[in-house]
Structure formats: C-alpha cells, structure tokens
Amino acid sequence: MLKSLQQNIEITNLSNFKTKAFTKYYFEINNENDILNLKEILEFAWKNTLKVLFVWAWTNMLFAFNLFDWIVIKNNLKWYDYNENTKILEVYSSEKITQIALDLENNYNQNIWHRFIWLPGSVWGALFWNAWCFWLETENNFLKAIVYNLSTNKLETLTKDELNFSYRSSLFKQTKNYFIIKIYFDLSKIVEKYSSDVDNIKFRKELQPKWNSCGSFFKNPSKENSAWSLIEWVWLKWFIYNNAYFSDKHANFLMTLKDNWDYKDLIYLIKLAQEKVLSKFDLLLENEVQIITN
Ligand SMILES: Cc1cc2nc3c(=O)[nH]c(=O)nc-3n(C[C@H](O)[C@H](O)[C@H](O)COP(=O)(O)OP(=O)(O)OC[C@H]3O[C@@H](n4cnc5c(N)ncnc54)[C@H](O)[C@@H]3O)c2cc1C
C-alpha cells in the first residue's frame, strides 16, 4: 500500500447528486509538488488493475456505486492571475469558473465571460466539456494548457490546434489521458454572437434548479429535438420515483430529493426516459452526465 493514499473515504459530496458513495483509495492534489506523486500512484493502479478517477467537487458525474473499488484523486489546485495589458488569464484548473467570471467583472471591468456566471464547476470542467453558455464556448478564448500526460508521466503544453474541440467535447474528454494543471485564456477575443441579449443570470435563476442535480442530464439528440421537450412529451416532467425526479422547472434536469440516498432511483429514471423516448420517437437519449460504475 502507498503511504500517500488514504483508504475508505466517503465521497458523497463530490458529486452534485450526493448519492451515498465511498472510495477504497483517495488522494488530494493541493499543490504542484503533489503532482509528483501521480507517477507512483499510477504505477500502483496499473500493477493492481485499479481504475483512477479525477474529481473536483460539484462534478458532472453520477456515482453509481456504493463502494468505488479504485482510486479517486481530488484536484484542489487553485490560484489565478489576469494581466490587464495583455488580457491573458492564467488559471489553475480547480478554480470555480463562476468565481473567475465574477472577479473579472468586479475587479478588472472585464465582462467577456459574463455568460459563464453561474455555470457550475471548475475551469478544467468547462474545458474538458467545452462548456457552452448562450453562444460563448470555452474554446473561444482558449490559448494553451499545461498538462501531465498520464501515459508518459511528463509535463506537456497543449495548444488550441491539438485540443480537437467539438460540441461539448475536447481532447481531454476524448482520450482521458491528461491531468490538466494550468490553463491560459486570451480574453481579447470577442465572438460576435455574444451580443445576443439573453440575460443568463435571470435565465438560470428562473429556469434551472440549482441543487442536487448535474444540469442537463441527456444531450439534445438534434437541434429540432431538445432532450427536455422529449421528456415532457413522454410525461416524465416532475415524475418522482422514490427519491429521484425530473425537475418541474426543466425536464432534462434529473434531481434527488435527499442527500445520502441510493443511486438506483436515478438509474431507474434514466432507463425509463430512454425507453419511453425510444419507443415513442425512435430517438436515443444519450447521457451528457457521466455515470461512474465500478
Ligand atoms: C445547474 C447546472 C447548469 C449547467 N449548465 C450548463 C450550461 O449552460 N452549459 C454547459 O456546457 N454545461 C452546463 N452544465 C454542465 C457543466 O458544464 C458541468 O457540470 C461542469 O462544466 C463540469 O465541471 P466540473 O468541474 O464539475 O467537472 P467534473 O465533472 O468534475 O470533471 C469532468 C471530467 O474531468 C475529469 N477531470 C477532473 N480533474 C481533471 C483534471 N485536472 N484534468 C483533466 N481531467 C480532469 C473528471 O474525471 C471528469 O471526467 C451545468 C451543470 C449544472 C449542475
């Protein structure tokens, strides 16, 4: 057993769904020195055929297990700097994207990330998913990222051409081969479409429930067919099954009523929605949120 690893740690609060979950091994990255431990942890994982899962808190994941038999690594890397002359933002991966967007407006009068205010999650999460908020996508301002390559155990710098961005996706999601340490954004780049007059703060407040959810659960099958409307059509909006339900505010938001509950209620509803939409519309609802199983 490695000294650096903690054992049998509760991780319920590391997913927004807050389903009761424990992990067999656990490690926290609090500074750049801790990254040096990754090599031996990954070797330990490889020798013992253990999977490794990186998390922050407030994650876009559903823990579909009671005891995770592998290694959970929690990223706590935080700090940022914004240069008002060059308009370059340098930020550690675990900073909250909302907080950065708010600080840019309040402290630097820089409102280019206004649309990211109240987008839950970390800066890396937004990059990993290429988050989209009312025509602002993370890739628009991305410049480069300092990453740890999990196969070679080396630090690398990746630029925009290498990231293969697409709808809710990036190289990080496609390969899961990198731990993102630090990200650089060029905030001098403005995209015309930002000028649409959606009030994102009001929109989120009125139409999106905040807690015990990971946001939209399913991807939209196409531009014409949004997941929320399909769920409404099969009468699952505000449908409750034990402790889980589809929100009455936004039908594609899967929610839990209580913390520390069993994940199985959520899985039941996910399958039910998929079956009903498939049989009525011949469309497959694919998860946007990752379901993590043992
Ligand atoms: C209420 C609500 C509203 C939302 N609205 C939107 C929206 O408008 N638009 C939108 O696009 N999304 C939306 N989302 C989804 C949102 O994009 C994601 O929840 C968020 O970006 C995920 O960030 P996270 O930090 O929680 O990432 P996580 O889910 O914790 O992590 C994402 C992935 O990165 C991996 N990972 C962890 N650390 C690292 C690291 N350092 N390096 C590399 N990989 C790592 C993880 O293993 C995981 O696979 C919403 C979610 C909620 C809850």
Describe this structure in words.
The structure is a single chain. This protein is an alpha+beta fold and 294 residues long. The protein has helices spanning 38-47, 97-108, 123-129, 138-141, 171-175, 200-207, 227-233, 264-281, and strands at residues 6-10, 22-29, 52-55, 61-63, 67-75, 80-83, 88-92, 132-133, 136-137, 142-149, 154-159, 178-186, 213-216, 240-241, 244-246, 253-256, 290-292. The strands form 5 sheets. It has a 5-stranded antiparallel sheet with strand order 6-7-12-10-11. Strands 1-2-5-3 form a 4-stranded mixed sheet, with no helix packed on it. The longest helix has 18 residues, at 264-281. The mean pLDDT is 92. The structure holds flavin-adenine dinucleotide. Residues 16, 53-56, 58-61, 75, 93, 119-122, 124-126, 128-129, 131-133, 172, 178-180, 208, 210, 213-215, 290 line the site of flavin-adenine dinucleotide (FAD). Residues 16, 53-56, 58-61, 75, 93, 119-122, 124-126, 128-129, 131-133, 172, 178-180, 208, 210, 213-215, 290 line the site of flavin-adenine dinucleotide.
